[in-house]
Amino acid sequence: MPDLFRFRFFTSSSQWIVGGFFAILLGLGLWLHDDYGVSWDEPNNHLNGLVSAKYLAQLVAPELVARQPSSHLIPDIQNFADADHGVAFELPLALLSFVFTHGDSQAFYRLRHACVFLVFVLGIWALYQLAKQRFESWRWGLLAALLLVLSPRFFAEAFYNGKDIVYMALFTLAVYTLTRLLQRPTLGRAVVHGLTTALAVDVRVQGLLVVLVTLLMLSLEARYRPRVERSHLLRVGGIYSVAALVFTVLGWPYLWALPWQELLAATQRISQYPWEGRVVYFGQVLRGTQLPWHYIPVWIIITTPLPYILTALAGVGAWMWEISQRGRASLSTFAGRLDLLFISWLLVPVLLVIGLRPVVYDGWRHLYFIYPALVLLTVRGVHTLATVARQRPPWRPVAISAILLVGGGMIHAAWRIARDHPHQQTYFSILPPALPSATSTSTTGASPTAKGLSGCLLTTWHPQSACTRPGPVATWFIQTR
User: Fold this and answer.
1) CB 439 within 8 Å of CB 431
2) What is the pLDDT of residues 432-464, one digit of tens each?
3) CB within 10 Å: which end of the chain, N or C, has fewer?
């Protein structure tokens, strides 16, 4: 069987194809971004950015702030309950709103949705680079990018989820700068990786996981480098750590007064988040603190196209087979170490949630940042199947059938995105038997309001009434068609 991607046009026109893909994606985003309503968290997230912007303005020009008629509507940073939420995205957006929207809420949310999508595209670019780097071909990188775009729930939330999607994109960017650092550990790359790490941390403090992963991967890299290079890797790790700390503090005004104490407090809040709402799960109304261990795995499976899941499992199986055959020798190659990184990226956060039982709700949006790893393992599965189809004729029909299944899954996902627009966030690949036609969860976060309702919200919102939430037993029923 010839290589699935071996076409002369593709080989000679790679830059045009990849550039065209991202140009079309950007154009599609600019065309569609006005179709989505306002999600429940957006006003409060924007208020968080305004709080930090007010704090900065008070440091620079306190008299000017005092003269602003609406400044009293924005809480001081010391009195704002969500001040320990990072503002790497919200603060620049708040500043842009002053420049371009002039108090027009409707114009602001249009700008906001466009900016969320632009950051999403940045994350897709980083994912493309990771797959291209791992599989040594732009074609595989483009497949990874397509798989992420053709994920219906993520496509919808890429326009309005300024917390989880933005964090996913910046986390993916940080992983990419990490792999560049591992590939060529220069001091400049260490500083750049420190910056991208800080961006992730300054959106969600869970981004500190990147610091731990970076130091562990540098230690692993040192085992396979000549002894004379190990001291250089130690210096690189030190420069990276300092850069990550400095950039994190610079990008998060909340930390300026008591950086160490406040960062520690924000970190502790991950496992002690004060949310006491209820979630409907398998027909039962459960507290967010009482969810069973399988809550996250089930949500991942029922909201991700099933062919992606099955092929990712094939990718994990291929990695486990290689480990069983070669043992530690499989880590002697850079590709082998990247596989370990991707597997850890996917599984470790899930296992931590299962083991530590932090509060999660609204499906699995708090773990969206692991989805690019699942996509990379899906590509790993397709890559393995293509290799089997070329090298093992008896298994060729099975491998080709599996590849066609993935292709069919992508086509179906594209059809669902078009059919369900602009409500792709209602997508389910499968539903539990107890819920044949509908599911429900408590609405507190990333689901958008209907566009008609959003028109009212856009014209009446002001900081004093930033966020209205339903009671703890309120539910939102989503009918899947």
Assistant:
1) yes
2) 555 444 444 433 355 565 443 333 333 333 333
3) C
Stretch among 163-177, 445-459, 460-474 having the lowest mean pLDDT: 460-474
Residue 459 lies in a domain: no
Q: Which domain holds residue 202?
A: 21-426
Q: Which two tokens stand for residue 212?
A: 């731990």
Judge whether 449 lies within some domain. Answer: no
Question: Cα torsion at 378, 25, 89, 304 (round to 10°)?
Answer: -30
pLDDT value at position 432? 59
Q: Are 141 and 131 in contact (CB under 8 A)?
A: yes
Q: Could you tell me the two tokens for 125?
A: 């670019």
Determine if the peptide bond prior to 422 is cis (ω within 30°): yes
Structurally, the chain folds into a number of domains equal to: 1
Give me the torsion for CA of 377, 380, 385, 386, rounded to 10°. Answer: 150
Task: Tokens for 99, please give them.
Answer: 């420049």
Burial status of residue 199 (CB atoms within 10 A of its CB: 0-12, 13-18, 19 or more): buried
Residues of the chain with pLDDT > 90: what percent?
A: 60
Residue in the structure block whose two tokens are 């569609």: 32
pLDDT exceeding 70 applies to what percent of the chain? 84
Name, in order, each residue with C-beta under 8 angstroms of 416's C-beta and a sequence gap of 6 or more.
152, 424, 427
Does some domain include residue 415?
yes
Q: Which residue has the tokens 């890299």?
A: 221
Judge if pTM exceeds 0.90.
no
Report phi then psi at 370, rounded to 5.
-90, -10
